[in-house]
Amino acid sequence: YDSMANDLDALKKVTGLDADMVSKSEQYLETGSPCFHGGAVYHRDAGLHPAKYHDGLVTKVIDAGVVIVSETAVTKLKKVASGYEVVSSSGKLTATQVAVCTNGYTNTVTQDLRRRILPMRSAMIATEPLDKKLIKQLMPNNRIYSDTRRVVAYYRACPDGKRILFGSRATGLQDKPLANAQLLKRYMNAIYPQLSDVSISHVWSGLVGYTFDHAPHIGQFGGDGGLFYAMGYCGSGVARSSYFGTKLGLKILGKSDSETAFDELIFESVPLYNGNPWFMPTILLWHRLLDRFGL
Q1: The whole model's pTM is what?
Q2: Distance of alpha carbon 279 from its chain centroid, rounded?
């Protein structure tokens, strides 16, 4: 708690962040969970509905004349005299410039980028409809919640106030809905014992992209100036990818105001890593053990 308070003071001085610490004696004003030792409230933090946001972006780009080809896997990316030949499951085309924004789904088509990304599977569950009084008790100010564990959890009430959404790392790299639901239900019950008898109605998962320096990366790959990338959002992709998408578009067009604080970061990998994070389940298990014992 003291470390969090010191970090918050420094952050407020540098950025003007609107935030406050909440002591353990007053945390009941923010959460109905008994398991914390206080925390921080970031007053401008917010949440959104990812699918609605996605639909809004799709509508905007289609209105601007963009052609979206869905359910079409790129199987090969080849350098040719006129730029790049993009081979897909629906055919092939040639482009002078290509943006690779595959994040946790980066595969062998761009192997040099794949070996710089650590894909991790995150999962979400949704409870059955709950009494709104119970949700108000657990989340008095209807905020977006997270914690400081190594295997972080994040949770909120649905926009309609009828359910609680709860997420964390999945059981492994593959999508295993039943196992993921059971794991996340245990996590949720530990934070909110009041939900122990509540059923889970939905579970889903997807891959996020981590990097070895825990920072997102944007720039050009290779020396010809035609291959661009933006990825490695480390679990904060909704906000970071929106920002990077704008900046990457400006870079591709050669426009001004395309610079970011991340431009000079070296996009590193480690020796012998080929993009297959076979070791991550073991690391996550170790981190879960450390979290369990408060180490």
Answers
A1: 0.90
A2: 20
- What are the tens digits of pLDDT across the range 141-172? 999 999 998 889 999 999 889 999 999 999 88
> Which pairs count as long-range contacts for 132-140, CB under 8 Å and 24+ apart, including other chains?
132/161, 132/162, 134/194, 135/161, 135/162, 135/164, 137/32, 137/194, 138/31, 138/32, 138/33, 138/164, 138/192, 138/194, 138/195, 139/31, 139/32, 139/164, 140/28, 140/29, 140/30, 140/31, 140/32
d(CA 131, CA 43): 26
The neighbour count for residue 230, using CB atoms within 10 Å, is: 26
**How far apart are the two ends of the chain, measured CA to CA in Å?**
14
3-state secondary structure of 267: coil
Give the H or E element holding residue 209. Answer: strand 200-210
- Beta carbons within 8 Å of 42's beta carbon, 6+ residues apart: 17, 18, 19
CA distance 210 to 208: 7
The distance between the two most distant Cα atoms of the chain, rounded to a whole number of Å, is 67
Contact call for residues 232 and 117 (beta carbons, < 8 A): yes
